[in-house]
Amino acid sequence: MLRVVSNTTPIISLLKLDRLELLQKLYNQINIPKAVFDEIEAGKNKA
Question: Minimal CA–CA distance to 34: which of 8, 4, 1, 16?
């Protein structure tokens, strides 16, 4: 089983390309640290 810990850059890049599902296709388990999640959520609120 392939597992990965992701930082913010690949998640945001794939979101911008509307291809976030690629992470699910490549890895069985994706761990996103709370700090990364918080950073992504904060970016959603920027104008």
Answer: 8
Q: Return the sign of the alpha-carbon dihedral for residues 23, 20, 31, 29.
A: negative
> Encoding tokens for residue 18?
């509307």
Q: Which of 44, 45, 33 is nearest to 8 (CA)?
A: 33
pTM of the predicted model over 0.90: no
State the number of CA atoms in the 13 A half-sphere of 11 facing the CB: 17
Query: How many domains is the chain partitioned into structurally?
Result: 1
Residues 45, 17 contacting (CB under 8 angstroms)? no
